[in-house]
Amino acid sequence: MALSAALLAAAGDLTQRIHDGVSARGFTDLRPAHGFAFARLAPGGATVTDLAAHLGVTKQAASQLVDEIVRKGYAERRPHPEDARARLIVLTERGWTCTRAAEEAAAEVVGEWAGRLGEGEMRALRERLVRIAPHGPIRPVW
Amino acid sequence: MALSAALLAAAGDLTQRIHDGVSARGFTDLRPAHGFAFARLAPGGATVTDLAAHLGVTKQAASQLVDEIVRKGYAERRPHPEDARARLIVLTERGWTCTRAAEEAAAEVVGEWAGRLGEGEMRALRERLVRIAPHGPIRPVW
DNA sequence: TCATAAGGTCAAGCAGCTTGACTATATGGT
DNA sequence: ACCATATAGTCAAGCTGCTTGACCTTATGA
Q1: How far apart are CA A30 and CA A38, in angstroms?
Q2: Residue B127 lies in a domain
Q3: Which of A4, A13, A67, B62 shows its CA 20 to 30 Å from the CA of B132?
Q4: In this structure, what CATH number is given to the domain that contains residue B79?
Q5: Residue B135: alpha-carbon gap to chain centroid
Q6: CA of B36 and C1' of D16: distance in angstroms?
Q7: What are the average pLDDT values for consecutive 10-residue runs of chain B, which has 142 residues?
Q8: Any idea which nucleotide's C1' is nearest the CA of B55?
């Protein structure tokens, strides 16, 4: 199996299993794309335009996604403290709970891998992946 | 940066850059999903149902995808040699040329990573990824 | 031989994305 | 101070790729 194929297979598997884990914890109204949005919102909120750039979609699409997570109670729109044109999208308590659930689910998968590879191998794997990973916007695998 | 985030970022980057490389080689009418289909068709062809299971979509969706790549000249439907209900989808010469272009593009990206990590590190990375990669159907990252 | 399963396609509907148009606010040169 | 231009965001319409449901054909097995 080629490196590229193994990388794509592992990433797809990870996404699917995080999603399954989040669903199993009761958050059944979200898709994997929402998780990437939550990750961007978590530190201190973000604007719709920030989110759009991070997700690699138009700001209209990002705005629709925000509509959805606001409607479902995971985030809220606040006036932006420094720019009256903009709004700051921040996670609600429910949004934070869901984010923690996703982190738990990811840790479960990574933990299973660590059981197969061992801690030292996992550290080496992480270090190499970080060195080849880009810093720009997140991209879907296909 | 967490292992899971690095893995997803690297995989998304790889997909995007393979797609860009394939486009740059003249195949501008394909999307990343087609590459995963080609990979399944390449060895010796596959049925629509096989393809659907591999891509994780319904057989109707797989059939539509086959319609498209047949219409664009990358594959053709042949009668299945052992089952009169089924059809064997096989790559045309154009399909093979495109597959080689994708392999070249992937090799370019992997080569760039090798330049950063070194050959020994890359072998270790590949070996570890293979050990955590699943064998089931391919899954999109989101 | 006939009930049931499996491969494939046709048709309709829908979700998520795009482009285009628009309003409101910010920014910077004159 | 003013105005041209850029930026943040939303509304509306349309498209594409996927889904579900119905159906035909061929295979399988009791």
Answers
A1: 11
A2: yes
A3: B62
A4: 1.10.10.10
A5: 14
A6: 19
A7: 92 93 94 94 95 95 97 97 96 96 96 95 95 75 50
A8: D18
